[in-house]
Fold:
Amino acid sequence: MAKLLLLLVIAVAALLYFPQTRPLIVERTRPVLDRVFTWATTDEMERIAHDLVAYEDAFNEFPESAEDFLNWLTEQYQADDAMTDSWGSPYAFKRSGASFTLVSAGPDEQFGTDDDLQVEGHRSGGSGRR
Structure:
């Protein structure tokens, strides 16, 4: 299965190399790519949520706002692509008491639509192992 997927990726990359075929290839592969991107983005958001809770356990600190969350992402992952979903949109962060939500705008790159992806997390309360 992995070899087949690799061959598919190589074929798509080769076809994208030629400018006249790019729009056609992107249009035809969009449904498949969106599924792969959805899986990858959800997986990444789950990892980020886990890391947020682990960070709180270790340092007894937790982002208070969306801006704090983006600063935390920058410090923790130090890569521009870690701050965005698979479609290039920044992650949104919402905090409500002991819970938090990470949101991706999804394939349409617009927040507040049906294709948004969300991962709920629950704070541990921090153990303060400083």
Summary: The mean pLDDT is 86.
